[in-house]
Design a protein that fits this description.
This protein is an all-alpha fold and about 270 residues long. The protein is built from ten helices and no strands.
């Protein structure tokens, strides 16, 4: 019993140490400023994705995903400098999310913060890959990743499960937007325009994620990695549906709204 109590005490001590370290990291001014910059950068990327999505809606060649948005940025005179700033901002935002993950008490909050940290690191790596000249489109990345998973034991089941998870996340985005639960992410009361932008933005992202998830599930059921499509592939597929042009236009407008909401979140986020 005494040994067990000591082990439990050590475990609590380690947990407390991690929690204090996480608190120090997330309360750091540089990390705080970086996290806010990360939200702002993400807002810019969503505006660019919205623009590329409109190109897709009207039948023009465009890659409507983060890699396509970063490619637009890299083509500007200060492209490399901006890409470096994107990497720094997303890395600091990921660090802040890791801190939130370590000091969270609820398992759901830990998982959510950890998943966000991974997403931001992937976005940072996308910018780094672009600077090194080895970037791939989101659709190609989706196919490659699906093919790797498909070759694993129970690969089809894993791909289908991943698709279901993405659909569930998309559904939660729609729920979060419709119920305005995103208000909880803000430290101060947002303006009515921010609320409208957040509501439309989360719903649009939810629709896009559901489309991506359905593509993953289709790839799993058919055992064809080519059926897996990232955001860009999902939007191109939507265009071919009845009223597809209207749907993609509305979703693109929603992405623009989400970009505007992220600018407000950069100022009002709970950090």
């Amino acid at each position: 019993m005494a040994t067990s109590a000591k082990a439990t005490g050590r475990a609590h001590g380690v947990a407390g140490l991690f929690s204090r370290a996480a608190g120090d990291a997330t309360d750091n001014r540089v990390v705080d400023a970086g996290a806010r910059a990360g939200y702002a950068v993400n807002g810019v990327l969503h505006l660019l994705i919205a623009w590329l999505g409109l190109q897709v809606a009207f039948g023009r060649a465009a890659k409507a995903d983060p890699s396509g948005a970063m490619a637009l940025v890299s083509a500007t005179p200060l492209g490399m400098v901006i890409l470096v700033a994107i990497v720094v901002a997303f890395v600091l935002l990921a660090v802040w999310q890791v801190g939130e993950c370590l000091r969270a008490h609820d398992t759901k909050d830990r998982v959510k913060a950890g998943a966000k940290a991974v997403v931001y690191l992937v976005l940072a790596w996308g910018a780094i890959s672009l600077m090194m000249g080895s970037a791939k489109s989101g659709q190609t990345q989706a196919k490659d990743a699906t093919a790797v998973i498909m070759d694993l034991p129970f690969g089809q089941v894993l791909v289908i499960a991943a698709g279901l998870a993405v659909v569930a996340i998309g559904g939660y985005h729609i729920y979060k937007g419709w119920t305005e639960r995103f208000r909880n992410d803000l430290a101060s009361s947002p303006s009515r325009m921010t609320v409208i932008a957040g509501k439309l933005g989360y719903i649009a992202r939810g629709i896009a994620l559901i489309a991506v998830g359905v593509g993953l599930m289709t790839a799993g059921f058919t055992h064809q990695a080519s059926k897996s499509k990232g955001l860009d592939g999902a939007l191109h597929q939507m265009v071919s549906l009845p009223l597809g042009q209207v749907v993609v236009t509305v979703v693109s407008a929603g992405f623009a709204c989400f970009g505007l909401y992220l600018f407000s979140r950069a100022r009002r986020a709970r950090t």
